[in-house]
Amino acid sequence: MYAIVRAGAKQQKVAVGDVIEIDLITTAVGESVTLPVVLLVDGEAVSATGLDKASVTAEVLGGTKGPKIVIQKYKNKTGYKKRMGHRQKYTQVKVTAINA
To answer: What does the record give as the function of this protein (predicted)?
Structure first.
């Protein structure tokens, strides 16, 4: 059994025991968080309707950071150049249960 869950602006495929990274949330380490279900697959049965009762429970493991992204801007013949960096922050969660 697996489910497609929505975490922030992204959707991810999860099964029980998976560790995934979602956008940063302010839940403390060790607490559980509930993620809404978009699609539920149980063997041959695929459910896309009536999912308002379905949910995925996950335990917060801690915060992580994504890879460093370098942003560069340059304009020819004007002497303009700019360099910036960005590193996205994520929260690592472990899926503990899929409630159908």
So the answer is: This protein binds to 23S rRNA in the presence of protein L20.
